[in-house]
Amino acid sequence: MPMWTWTGETARRLRDAGQQELAEAVSDLPVLSESGDSVRVEATARSALRVARRLVTEAGTGEPEVPGLFGPPMLFFLAHWPMAVRVGALAEGERALKQAEAAAADEPGPETRGPLPVSALASAVRCHANVDARGTTGLRRELLSGRRLAGWERTPAWPGFVLARVDLLIDEGAPDRAETELRRFEHTATGTAVLDTGGVFTLARALRHQDRHREALATLDRLGTELSARRVGPREPALRRRVRFERARLLSWLARLGVCSPNEAIEALPTVEDAEAVPSLRPAWVETAENLVSLGAVRNDWRLGVRVTTWSRYFERVGAPGRGAELALAAARLAVARGARWVAVCSVRRAEELITHLGRTAEIRGDLGEVRSMITAMRPVEPEAPADRILTHLRSLPHDRVDPEHQAEQVNVALASMPHDTPLLTALGQVGRTLMLSDVATEPQWRHVRETPGDQKAALSLLETLLHDNDTAGVRTLVRTLAAGALNDVPADDPLAPAAPAVTAPTSASAAGQTAGTGHRAEAQPQRAL
Known about the structure:
The chain is mostly helical and 530 residues long. Helix content is 66%, strand content 0%.
């Protein structure tokens, strides 16, 4: 019995017993997780567990069950989804890894208290894949070994392990074996039903990794036709969205090969808002956009660069360096194509740092080398005005020529000759925040503040940049730096000198913000530079 079948039968039984809230939670949690709505997943799971535990207490059996209604498997099911959405739609890696591993370690045997419908071990495997899909194959193979999975083949959670093993084959560089494994299920009476839509998406991935893009597209088109013919249910919107992302990626590549028109890919391309809602789908959107940019079918401007950089930094923040490095390299290639040297250099530096956390890096280091060569071939930036007048020049430009990347180039050239000029450092902080490269923009600001801690304007500009980046550690370091500088400026014979200045850093409102409907931390929005 697949998990989705178990969910329907359990919800029906709860509904018949008058437990409407529990029935809705059992039905809704997998759907909300699939759509990436982690806020509602967390709230629904917490509320349902509270109701379930109250019923267990009232039953008074001394066991985590209500005889005739539910047992431990349902409690595990309710507790499973907050982590599942984090490692699934939100694509978290290191940030969720300790909790995922702890949950897997505490998980009972698959049939100790009845067949479990879901597995914390599967979530831990997916979390490792998020961290580094290629570098964790050995570890994941051990976690998915026959010894570790003994007994799970008789539970509703088994299809998830089957797909995890197939994904592992693809990450090991054997997509043909992955396809063979999936095709075996097509020749059984219940095979396709057991793997559900997950089998279709995984098959399309295996075909794409064999460069059989048209076959992958046909596979997704069949699923799309099937979804259109279904009665609209709660799962359909998320499934159709995922089909659109994967179709757009395939069509954009086929357009590069001249097999189809770029317009087909543009029409299939989901909105940025769709990609914002489900971080795991962002790499497909970026790959599609980059392919279409190479064909001249999509405008490559600084706004696209900001979007890709923001998403790269999201994966960096959640501990998914593989995806973060890939998007950083995409941001660098796009920046080179539009002549934005500073952005390209910053993106390559980010990719280099993230790659150090990966294993099996031969392929991505080859991509890194290609981008470095592209940057080396770019012409150096020519100053448009003397360094002491560059800000006046930039502010005099007409509105239609305002480009934060161009401003950043000119400000950096000026800083090369005036590295401690406070207005230039402030301007760099402004354009850095606009371009979502504030972490790089703070480097010259830090050098100046450490050498001249009494420069209040420079310190305030650095503070603003740190808060924009939600860098609480940087704020604490700045406070200590300013305090130490103030103490050093106090005459030794002054008996009334204070021990240290009272510096209070304001709280960034966005640090604790949640993006509505996604549950991941709100991304900073671009602001007008200079």
